């Protein structure tokens, strides 16, 4: 039971860095001696120390001698390879912890049991699979990327009660200010955001984070014939931008033009995003692009913002999406429907 309490604390710590660690996973760590937490930490940013190292460094000088009699808890298997930082499994071995408790094993091919093996080969007791489902949910983006070889896909749109995304084919504010803030928070937490050509021409979106503090996602535009003007907001210098097209390959400062063929384009785009180490993407529009992902069943979660008091009568129809929501929330007069693609389990 205590193991679950401390792994849950690891998850709480890890969540503090949501959106900031890409392409690394979210990881929290707690060090316990005699049912007392003597150190804790989380991975804050790629290239910076991992959770285990931050937890070790947080131990007060008077408690350092307790390490050989302490248990270190970590939400994800300690790494076993040299990257921008040394392997955490080696540090745990070097300091000689009494025991290691792991939430979920790491399916990344550079780890995948190797971290735990280093620890057990050193004669340190290691237990894994504590709150495993919760730990995998914490890193759903990371696990989807490494196991499915594609980013975690989130579909998102707003619609009126009669199923339209705009009014008379012109932009229309469907959801409220609180919903907008929710969306910007969501953008700050995901690795990238994608729109099709029509949305870029129709709405001229910036696809940046504004109403909350946070990093801008990488912007992705599908524009085969490069019809969107380079004076559009999506081309400004506020965020890194990838343009999938059938005209040219070119890199220029924060712009990356990637040439692909139209045939089977969704899968080609996802393959390229995997190569670029992009772990999650919000598909924000428009209807045609969203419907392509739905029709090919390439999505993990969907959020629909519905205004139950708004009839628009005419305009762009919302995508056809015949699934039951897992939960519903109210953001004042906007209803948010949350869906999970259970057919992928």
Strand content: 15-25%
Number of strands: 15
The CATH homologous superfamily of the largest domain corresponds to Dihydrofolate Reductase, subunit A
Rg over C-alpha atoms, rounded to the nearest angstrom: 22 Å
Assign the CATH class of the largest domain: Alpha Beta
Q: Mean pLDDT, nearest integer?
A: 94
Number of domains: 2
Contiguous helical run count: 10
Uncertain segments are: none
Q: Sketch the topology as an H/E string, one letter per element.
A: HEEHEHEHEHHEHEHEEEEHEHEEE
Global morphology: elongated
- CATH topology of the largest domain: the name is Dihydrofolate Reductase, subunit A
Largest sheet: 10 strands, mixed
Which secondary-structure class do the elements indicate?
alpha/beta
Spatially, the strands of the biggest sheet line up as 10-11-9-8-7-12-6-13-15-14
Q: Which percent bin holds the helix content?
A: 25-40%
Overall CATH architecture of the largest domain: 3-Layer(aba) Sandwich
Query: Could you tell me how far the N terminus lies from the C terminus, measured between alpha carbons in angstroms?
Result: 28 Å
């Amino acid at each position: 039971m205590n193991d679950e309490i401390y792994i849950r604390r690891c998850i709480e710590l890890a969540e503090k860095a949501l959106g900031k660690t890409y392409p690394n996973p979210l990881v929290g760590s707690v060090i316990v001696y005699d049912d007392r937490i003597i150190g804790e930490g989380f991975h804050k940013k790629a290239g910076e120390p991992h959770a285990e190292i931050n937890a070790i460094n947080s131990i007060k000088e008077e408690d350092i001698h307790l390490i050989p009699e302490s248990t270190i808890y970590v939400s994800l298997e300690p790494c076993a390879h040299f990257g921008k930082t040394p392997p955490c499994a080696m540090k745990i071995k070097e300091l000689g912890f009494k025991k290691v408790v792991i939430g979920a094993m790491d399916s990344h091919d550079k780890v995948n049991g190797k971290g735990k093996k280093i620890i057990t080969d050193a004669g340190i007791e290691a237990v894994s699979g504590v709150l495993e489902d919760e730990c995998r949910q914490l890193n759903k983006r990371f696990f989807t990327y490494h196991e499915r070889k594609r980013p975690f896909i989130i579909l998102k749109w707003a619609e009126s009660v009669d199923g339209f995304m705009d009014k008379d084919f012109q932009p229309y504010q469907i959801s409220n200010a609180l919903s907008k803030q929710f969306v910007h928070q969501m953008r700050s937490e995901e690795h990238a955001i994608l729109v099709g050509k029509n949305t870029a021409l129709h709405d001229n979106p910036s696809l940046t984070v504004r109403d909350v503090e946070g990093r801008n996602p990488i912007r992705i535009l599908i524009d085969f014939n490069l019809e969107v003007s380079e004076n559009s907001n999506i081309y400004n210098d506020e965020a890194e931008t990838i343009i999938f097209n059938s005209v040219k390959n070119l890199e220029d400062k924060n712009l990356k033009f990637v040439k692909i063929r139209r045939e089977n384009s969704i899968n080609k785009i996802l393959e390229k995003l995997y190569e670029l180490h992009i772990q999650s993407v919000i598909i924000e529009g428009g209807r045609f692009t969203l419907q392509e992902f739905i029709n090919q069943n390439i999505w993990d979660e969907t959020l629909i913002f519905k205004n139950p008091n708004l009839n628009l009568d005419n305009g762009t129809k919302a995508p056809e999406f015949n699934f039951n929501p897992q939960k519903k929330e109210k953001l004042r007069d906007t209803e948010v429907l949350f869906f999970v693609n259970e057919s992928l389990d």
